[in-house]
## 1
Amino acid sequence: MTEVTTLTEVPLPTGGEGSRSVGWWGVLSLVASEAALFSYLLFSYFFVAINADTQWPPTGAPELGLVSVNTVILLSTSGTLWLAERQLSGGYRRSSIALQGLTIALGALFAGLQTVEWSNKDFSLSSHTYGSLFFTITGIHLAHVVVGLLVLCFLMLWTILGYFDADHRRPLSIGSIYWHFVDVVWIFIFSSLYLSPHLGGLHGP
């Protein structure tokens, strides 16, 4: 007699922490599409810069003081968030919560200093092509920072409520991918908009 295997007898995949979930692939797809967006924006910046028939940037190379400090602040958040993940994986939930809070505070500080830097500019979005590109690129990045901060706030709240622990932390890891992406994008923006004008050669006559 042929043995019939019922549905309840078939072992179902548990989807452990090491497996790739739908959420993981979803955020990876999001990162890929957003990376393409910033690639197009930075390509536009360099295309216009190389073909500029006047000084580029029109107002001269940007000051590096405040934005350099702000860059260090933002990049440090990747370290604090990574430590938060490690603490949670080790079962130290309170330490993880504290580090998540520090990450959010530093990210908010970056956003605040970014607006301060904008207010110090003597040009606007509509002043010239450079102004349009500058505020569009940095503005879209700042929007990503704000979205990332909201995600981190929810993740910290859920950690506080006990939804995440050493065995169930995948959402925090997935959310961290997006935040690390935001940090990496800023490296390219900082190098392109702030550092490259100081190198000269490719910017106008």
## 2
Amino acid sequence: MANPLFTKNFIAGAAITKYRIVKFGADDDHVIQASASSDSIIGVSDSLGAGTGERVDIVLSGIAEIELGGSVNRGTVVTADSNGRAVQCSPSTGVNQRLIGISMVGGTTGDIAPVLIALSVMQG
């Protein structure tokens, strides 16, 4: 059910698992797997992932498939967990969380779910 509108190729600054949320790496050409909801997330790795130094396609807009890191409800905004998986966004009061997008289906840990990429920031 993925329908990427814009995919860009980067270099993996570290190993990136397939279907994971990524952030910028050490420079303009590198990305690494996101590890927190506060990371400057930019997109989602494709179905292949990549080893350190390998090329990787990152979905920057459209509907991307993302591995879930917990229970997610359809229509919920999601962010990255410590493993780059999508989890429901629920910031504490005064805390900012960066969002990757909106889950198109409900699911649980390990499911691969379509997420509409809609980068933004939410404050609790």
## 3
Amino acid sequence: MDELRRSLRKPNQGFADEQAPSDGSWGRCFEEWFLKFNTSVDFIRELQEEGRTPAHRTSFLDRINSPESLSTYLHSLLISDITATGKDSAKELNYAATGLLRLLLNGAPADYPYHPSLKDALLRFIDDEWQNSDTGYWGEWYLRVGEPVKTDHLSTTFHIISYRKGDVRRWKKIIDTTLAIKGLEYPFGWLEHGGYSNHHNYDVVKIFRYGWPHMNRRQQATARDELRAMIRWCLQSSLKPDGSFVMSRTGPIGESFYFGVAFLNEVGYFERARRFWTDEEFHGVDDVRAAILRKIDSIKYGDLYMKWAREMLIEAGGEQLQ
């Protein structure tokens, strides 16, 4: 509490979003390497989209910049023995592996000397060693009575499929599993505290988008019903009349806008061309988009999630509504 009081006496918190000259990482308020890494990935990709490279050399990446060191690190996270260590490595494995996908598949940062075999080493781990051959999913493994038990993690699976643009194996099993876990709680299902959330709905829609050509007609019909139900919930229970979204119990305000907009965008609510699953029309789209955009602009809260939400609305035609 004393640390919080001292922090609140500093109205300018901009230092938290600055790159550290010492190792080129972001996330100065974090102590764990993987949390700094996860934060850094967002800033590096943002700079890349602007055609820029980081001001300081990103030497924090050196610790995994060889096939051997990367393999050792990822394998150290793959199986959690919570009874012995008290540590669950699921989040670190998700952030590390999928964050590396975002960087390596896009050559970011452009001025960092990645080992030429690093990307292949990462893909071998993901495809040959980590993916659950029974379910098609990825997730943390837990040691139970001396044997590893594999779990199926929605977020991890979504990230891998999304960043690889659907170029993954075992699509039939991925689709079967995705439909089978709809009534389970996150991270092993779609639900959050027994109900929908825009975050997890967005993950499911993205999996459906890339998996649509691999579905049979019965699965596509089921998916259509689910997507319609998600849209109704978003517009009636999550989106508020003033254009904001009901915040989750854990996420900040920026994420509430980002995942609400990202879900509606991914499902094709804003644009007919993105409706991979239907040719039906939606009513009131322009009014919804305009309300969200006005609310974002009125808040003037400049984190990346709000910025990304606004960009999605603009790309979907929101510039006509300003």
## 4
Amino acid sequence: MAPTLSFEFFPPKDLPASFRLWDAAQSLLPLSPEYVSVTYGAGGSTRDLTHETVTALSQQGARVAAHLTCVGATKDETLGVARRYREAGVHDIVALRGDAPKDQSFEPHPDGFASSLDLTAALAKEGFRVQVGAYPEPHPDSRGAAADLDWMRAKMQAGAQRAVTQFFFEPETFLRYRDAWADAGIPGDLVPGILPIHDWTKARSFAKSCGASIPADLNEAFERAIREDRHDLMALAHTVELCDALTSEGVDHLHIYTLNRPDLTREVARALGCPATEPLRKVA
């Protein structure tokens, strides 16, 4: 049986990016995702753009989960944003600590939420369906795997209903984490985050920054594929193999980080047997 899917988009920063986002939505929403999510820029830099994107996607009939972070805002400002989402018919929030602007360390606003745990609890109290992030390999700022699991348990007990993982390159990374999650008795759903690799160099750099291990044999395979001008085929084969291995182990939902580039995601979905309806009609 084909898995259910959800997709992550990021808000556009200029007019050409707006067209790319709409094209991505037009291509992927016919796959009937359970929901789509929209990211939040470092330091809260895309707050208004995120809200506009969430509203636009919601108006297309999609269930949308809006990212919300602890950075750069007071508690009242952050909850004000959340309430604006509710007024727009959006009831799903992805609660995250958030990233500081480049070359700065994370510092919560003195009158803001100190952590994603505090934000999660406040949003759950407001009646939102809350999702949180999870790291199948320890978060770069954590004290280790055991501390990560304790933190995840606290967030889920604070009211989160689902956790979506950072991306990873081998199925065993997620499956080991799922076992550890179960052994720790953590409530809620755990969903793997999947990154289709549009650019191996960028994906490798991102992996280093977020603590995702890079298998030597995979790096070698991509380097060879790049030399032989078959990167796209390698990316498709790797992503489908990863997803297939996960679904074979009972994973029934995949969250895909699309990077607003729909083609590879759509090919992966087709390979996994996910049905698609007709593409959306472009609005003049």
